[in-house]
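Quick one, tokens below. Sequence please?
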């Protein structure tokens, strides 16, 4: 995230532009593109899953819950790095210690 701002009723996040392989930029599009499947080795898929897991862990450590994690809300760049997006349904929860 490059910038974060709070308005009167909303929060705003400025994130990097993610351009994916073959013009596809989310995990759903990539998994549905048959021309990309041969390049999605098991080890690459494991790395992508690790990126998503680390993103969730990062959010949860800070008290945030995404609440709408799905393939179309995971952006994938040209090197197949995954980034969680679309925080419209997310919530901040109170940490109980």
């Amino acid at each position: 995230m490059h910038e974060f701002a709070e308005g009167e009723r909303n929060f705003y996040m400025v994130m990097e532009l993610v351009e994916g392989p073959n013009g596809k930029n989310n995990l759903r599009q990539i998994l549905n593109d048959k021309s990309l499947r041969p390049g999605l080795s098991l080890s690459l898929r494991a790395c992508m899953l690790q990126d998503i897991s680390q993103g969730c862990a990062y959010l949860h450590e800070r008290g945030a819950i995404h609440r709408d994690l799905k393939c179309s809300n995971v952006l994938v760049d040209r090197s197949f790095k995954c980034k969680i997006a679309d925080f419209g349904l997310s919530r901040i929860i109170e940490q109980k210690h």
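The CA atoms of residues 4 and 13 lie 5 Å apart. The longest strand covers residues 3-6.
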